[in-house]
Amino acid sequence: MRTEHLDFITFCVGSLSDALHKSASQVYGALRSSGVLNDYIVPCYDVLHTFSKDYLVEELTEVLKERGALA
User: Fold this and answer.
1) DSSP code of 35?
2) I need a surface site. Which of 11, 22, 49, 54 has the fewest CB within 10 A?
């Protein structure tokens, strides 16, 4: 995994953590266990990192809901 991927993942986890009022470890666990981290964020990094923080939070929240990782 490249450094920019790690930086982006950290940004996504922190942004989701703030928006969802959950700890960073809870958010990271949800992203990892649902496959969103390795099956969506990392492979789509080139496109996703160009979007705004608000869009990313909305998009990742929806993907987590679709995968049953969020109620």
Assistant:
1) T
2) 54
What is the chain's pLDDT, residue by residue, as a tens digit (71 residues)?
789 999 999 999 999 999 999 999 999 999 999 999 999 999 999 999 999 999 999 999 999 999 999 97
Q: How far apart are CA 39 and CA 19, in angstroms?
A: 22
| pTM (two decimals) | 0.93
Question: What six digits make up the tokens of 13?
Answer: 């986890």
The residues near 67 (Cβ < 8 Å, ≥ 6 apart) are 34, 35, 36
- What is the token pair recorded at 32? 């990892």
Query: CB under 8 Å to 28, separation ≥6 — which residues?
Result: 13, 37
